[in-house]
Design a protein that fits this description.
The protein has 5 helices and no strands. Helix 1 packs parallel to helix 3, helix 2 packs antiparallel against helix 3 and helix 2 packs antiparallel against helix 4.
Length: about 170
Amino acid sequence: MTDIYTSNDAIIDNFDMAALDHDSKRINAASGEENQYFNIGIFYQLGSRVDQSAYNLESAKERFDQAEHAQAQEFEINGNESARFLQLADRAAQAEAHHANAKMFYDLDVDLFNCVSGFTWQSGAKIKGDYYGRKWYAKQKEARQTKRILAPTAPTAEDIAARKAEMIKRRAA
């Protein structure tokens, strides 16, 4: 079997690098914080591929586990000679192959995301129950959609009233 990552090499060789931001834009010059819009288009484009691959991998794993369980139950009840067992064995083998293919596509998409986007999938984050980074990606998307405010917000009516009361109090003293 050839190295599966050679397909990503071909994609990267043909990738239009004009879609990427210059590394100097990673940090917001005004705030000194990470620029939430750095490579945002690539983040969504490649991130959505990984997210979909992760979903497919989770589904394939679930189907494989169910097929193995059904096969094991049939084996306990009727042994390995029953027509039903042989049918379930074929289904389990097919589900295993689907799972292996889903894992391969997930690995390819994660590698492509890591190589091109300027980000690392899951960034080492460990979220309970998030084996393939889908919850991490959802949080990252939300963080990038939230407009950051670099200056203090306008005072509320309560803030203004409290300031006026403080000024009156100081004036009276």
